[in-house]
């Protein structure tokens, strides 16, 4: 992908589907800090303005401890995100009212022993489901199918068998076949399924990563002030100390460690 300053545009395949892969990674509860170890999505949505209930600033007691989200050494453990797959956290249901569709069989997870990604009550309709909202948005945008996008990118498309392959915790086979989605799969679902069956949920698959990576890199290339700009790319690279990784591989965890203690690199290794 080549880009010039001023010609950057966000494609609808990115905004309407591929970049929404993060919806699958959201947990039902988060440990924000030592005082809030089980903050639910409902609580967090209220704090961040969902429904117009947020104050002008985040209360001090909700200050985020980033070591709960990134491995930052010192014996602290971060709670990992959910895998990128075709399941959605139960807390992401009931986000919007009035959206109706006969697609409620998709994405609803049944995982014995875990409430984080669970089936809503049987009587609950699909009108509030984030998956349905995403699917309808993609249809209204007239997004191409996942198979069509994969072919356009020169990527081997998922087979029909891969599309209908059951997630260990939920089968979507009947609904996919009913709507013909095993042949022409909605792009958002396709991106999630590709990560699930080809990358074990650890990362995006080739189609999803191509879309997301190209768009982000293109945005940086067209920004004259970014670190990929020709004016800065040869003269700058991250220089914060790195004790636990290859010095050429600067990670977010390095920045978190440095923000906690700028002199951490001078302390003995644990």
Q: What is the straight-line distance between the termini?
A: 43 Å
Query: Can you list the strand order of the major beta sheet?
Result: 1-2
Query: Secondary-structure element order, as H and E?
Result: HHEEHHHHHHHH
Report the mean per-residue pLDDT as an integer. Answer: 78
Gyration radius from CA atoms, angstroms? 21 Å
The main sheet comes to:
2 strands, antiparallel
SS-based class: mainly alpha
Gross geometry: globular
Number of strands: 2
Which residues sit in consecutive blocks of at least 5 with pLDDT less than 50? Answer: 97-105, 108-127
Strand content: under 5%
* Helix content bin: 25-40%
Count of helix runs: 10
Report what the structure shows:
With about 270 residues, this protein is mostly helical. It is built from ten helices and two strands; from the N terminus they run H-H-E-E-H-H-H-H-H-H-H-H. The chain has a two-stranded antiparallel ribbon. Strand 1 and strand 2 form a beta hairpin. The relative contact order is 0.15.
Which key phrases capture this entry?
270 residues, mainly alpha, 2 strands, globular, 1% strand
Q: What is the gist of this entry?
A:
The protein is mainly α. 30% of the residues lie in helices and 1% in strands.
